[in-house]
Amino acid sequence: MDTTTNNRSRRSFQTADLCDVHIASPQRLQVVQPNLFKSYGKKTSFHGKIETIRCFECNTLVRQVLDQGPSSCSWSGNSTSSYSSAADDEERKATVVLVVDGGGSQRCSLLGDILASMVKDHGWSGVVMNGYIRDSKAINEMDVGIKALGTHPLKSSKEHQHSMGSKRGIHVSFGGVEFVPGHYLYSDEDGIIVSERDLSLDNVVV
Asked: What is the CA radius of gyration of the chain?
């Protein structure tokens, strides 16, 4: 298969089309609970391999991971990764989604405009946040893609960092879906889907 054509099809994906093509195939496609997340930033769609964080009312680890960039992902040394060569490094950096399980806490936000700027500056494809954000007006002017439960004006505390055990690179579950590091996520105006394998309209397995 021509790599350029395959990459183009992935960049121009629509979750509805991917569901039509792959829902009956052995790709373990899952659909996140509809209308759970709101969209922020100018990027209405994004996709990529999943990296995960679990935290509670503390965004210290979120900041650290965003600042380190996609090249620090917990699965990056896995030989099964489809981005295993130096030639694929730029594609890997541009197609990693950070999934943050903040426990859905409504008591504070976990991401503001400073962290949102790191999403763009350090090459993350997007962020899915099981929690809240702030500075939404500024974020909506940025070329980033962020899905979150909503907005909250209060920033997070640093007091919970150790007591609540913030972790990275683990399986997290919310919205009726399990998010696994190294699996794939696709998000657009219609919703969010995840799959064990990279999906396109060209590589359907029947």
From this structure: 16
User: Cα separation of 21 and 6, whole Å?
Assistant: 15
Q: State the pLDDT at residue 26.
A: 59
Q: How many whole angstroms separate alpha carbon 27 and alpha carbon 20? A: 13
Residue ranges of E strands in 108-162: 126-133, 146-151
**pLDDT per residue as tens digits for the range 96-150:** 999 999 999 999 999 999 999 999 999 999 999 999 999 999 999 999 999 999 9
58: three-class secondary structure by DSSP: coil
Strand partners, 128: 99, 147
Q: Which of 53, 49, 108 is nearest to 80 (CA)?
A: 49
Task: Determine the Cα–Cα distance for residues 170 and 180; give it in Å rounded to an integer.
Answer: 7
- Coil/strand/helix, residue 136: helix
CA atoms within 13 A on the CB side of 179: 28
Q: Dihedral through CA 52, CA 54, CA 60, CA 66, nearest 10?
A: 10
Q: What is the DSSP letter of 166?
A: -
Model pTM score: 0.84
Regions in the chain scoring below 70 on pLDDT: 1-11, 25-27, 76-94, 159-164, 201-206
Give a three-class secondary structure readout of 12-32. Answer: CCCHHHHHHHHCCCCCCCEEC
> Which pLDDT score, from 0 to 100, does residue 204 have?
46
* Cβ-Cβ contacts under 8 Å for 34 (sequence gap 6 or more): 191
